[in-house]
Design a protein that fits this description.
With 59 residues, the protein is mainly alpha-helical. It has helices spanning 2-21, 27-58. Helices cover 88% and strands 0% of the residues.
């Protein structure tokens, strides 16, 4: 559940940055970019947390 919340937060921040910094007005491209990057972020986050858990169990 917290992975989904983190990915959503990342998605919102990403869109805000793209909208503000790059003055990107094409909302379709923004949504696609944000969606793809938040999915990548979600998998990275869950992978890293699972690795940390495994290392703690081994120790």
């Amino acid at each position: 559940m917290k992975y989904i919340l983190a990915a959503l937060l990342f998605f919102v921040i990403f869109i805000a940055i793209m909208f503000g910094v790059f003055k990107e007005k094409d909302i379709d491209r923004l949504l696609i970019l944000g969606g793809v990057s938040s999915v990548i972020f979600y998998f990275l986050y869950s992978y890293l947390e699972n690795r940390i858990k495994r290392k703690q169990q081994e120790a």
